[in-house]
Amino acid sequence: MPNDLISHSSPAAMPLTGARPKAPLSGTIRVPGDKSISHRALMLGALAVGRTEISGLLEGEDVLATAAAMRAMGASIERLAEGRWQVDGVGIGGLAEPADVLDLGNSGTAARLLLGVLATHPFTSFVTGDASLRSRPMRRVTDPLSRFGARFTTREGGRLPLAVSGAVNPVPVEYTLPVPSAQVKSAVLLAGLNTPGETTVIEPQATRDHTERMLGHFGATLRVAPAEGGGKRITVVGQPELIAAPIVVPADISSAAFAIVAGLVVPGSEITIEGVGLNPSRTGLLASLAEMGADIAYLNERVEGGEPVADLRVRAGALHGAEIPPERAPSMIDEYPVLGVAAACAKGRTVMRGLAELRVKESDRLAGMAAGLAACGVKVSVEGDDLIIDGDGNPPAGNAMIETRLDHRIAMAFLVMGLAAKSPVQVDDARPIATSFPGFVPLMNRLGAGFAEIV
Ligand code: S3P
Q: From CA 283, how far away is CA 249, in angstroms rounded?
């Protein structure tokens, strides 16, 4: 199919090494589009009436899995040029039963948000993913979605593969999030779209709000009010007509994070990352790094496609330890692996509190970070859900081989560790990086990182 992007990942594992570069990192880059916004653009575009034009779409494997799933249910999705896509929607309730299993690869966001959509479409579909996704908990969405009247048959422990039969006569739901998860919030709101009446999610702790912003952008009626006892009540009025609207996807701060930390920990570096999305529900990493003494300047601050963005100029310098409070976790949930690298290079103790959700990401990231940091000679411990890292302000030893465990962010974080460490750090398989950050290696190498395949 001319519109499809073919995955070029090789069948064999791809080990990669990060080693101290001979010169400081320097230059200006733009990282790919925001993953969260890209998934939502394709899903809501497919549910809208008319043609949605998207620019800056992330063309990573996770997002391509969402595109394939929406196509399999009748939406017409075309790639016009790099990052430029158009979606002809079928309208809310207009999706058709897919003829085959929907395989969402490594993507928890694709799986959980789509289950929300499927829960109120009256047909049966089958959903699966790779070994990582098949090990991740789905009850957090199947429980609230069952309340709409959807039926799920899952593997032991509520895991994929699963079958979902969407409710024929869905009933609206009011649901309080038991975990601070934008994926769960979004699944419930998306199910509410094809449900008469009002669906409400109560969010005690703020999580990323891209679904709400984009629903508003497409003309849905959404009310956000303070909840009793703190947090927000988010209500969507069911069965709106979503009207196609252009979407500009900002650069993903979760991808920029790797370049930012690399720029901070390679002595003498000065780099700029352009057009980084700075939605306040996503900027916990920048707050944490600022507390650690990082030199990051926000240049050319502006609003693009309804999201605040800026060019970030990063200068290397000494970092010190900090206390990262648990309430900051949702705003930097994907950034802990690379913050761990910054903390390992900093002087003093960094305590990251309230990391329970890291155990159910693409891998158990709390365990993976602790094991990887220890292998690199870093003083690290896990106490309950907290991670404690003691740095002495000198580069960690490195000289380690890190198991990626199908986790893109563990792979990228430890490659960045290799740039700072005394001896190189290898990751056993860099292929998962293509799920969120295609072009990571050449882009970082343009700054002078020198990531190299092991031969
Ligand atoms: C995402 C939400 C986060 C994040 C994930 C993307 C989203 O997950 O880890 O990478 O797009 O809604 P949770 O909301 O489950 O924490």
A: 16
Pocket of ligand 1 (CB under 6 A): 36, 109, 181-183, 186, 207-208, 333-334, 357
- Beta strand pairing call for 307-315 and 295-304: antiparallel
Looking at residue 334, the DSSP 8-state letter turns out to be G
Question: Which atom, in ligand 1's list, is nearest to the CA of 140?
Answer: 15
Closest C-alpha residue for ligand 1 atom 13: 181
Question: 267 C-alpha vs ligand 1 centroid, how far in Å?
Answer: 32
> Mean pLDDT in each 10-residue stretch from start to end of the chain (455 residues)?
48 94 98 98 98 98 98 98 98 98 98 98 98 98 98 97 98 98 99 98 98 97 96 98 97 99 99 98 98 98 92 98 98 98 98 98 98 98 98 98 97 98 98 98 98 77
Count other Cβ atoms within 10 Å, centred on residue 382: 14
In this structure, the residue with its CA closest to atom 10 of ligand 1 is 334
Q: Which of 161, 192, 162 is closest to 175 using CA atoms?
A: 192
Ligand 1 mean position, distance from CA 221 (Å): 23
In this prediction, residue 1 carries a pLDDT of: 37
- Secondary element (H or E) of residue 313: strand 307-315
Report the predicted TM-score, pTM, of the whole model to 2 decimal places: 0.97
Residue 143 annotated as catalytic = no
Q: 3-class DSSP state for residue 422?
A: coil
CA proximity to 63, closest of 111, 98, 134:
111
- Two tokens at 104? 């969402």
At residue 2, the pLDDT reads 37
Q: Could you read off the pLDDT of 16-46 as tens digits, one per residue? A: 999 999 999 999 999 999 999 999 999 999 9
**Terminal-residue alpha carbon distance, the chain:** 34
As a whole number of angstroms, the distance between CA 409 and CA 443 comes to: 16
- pLDDT tens for each residue of 392-421: 999 999 999 999 999 999 999 999 999 999
Say whether 33 sits in a helix, a strand or coil: strand
Alpha helix segments (H runs only) across 129-174: 131-134, 139-146
- For residue 156, the one-letter residue type is E
Answer for the pair 116, 145: CB distance below 8 angstroms, yes or no: yes
What is the phi-psi region of residue 392: left when phi exceeds 0, alpha when psi lies from -120 to 50, beta otherwise? Answer: alpha
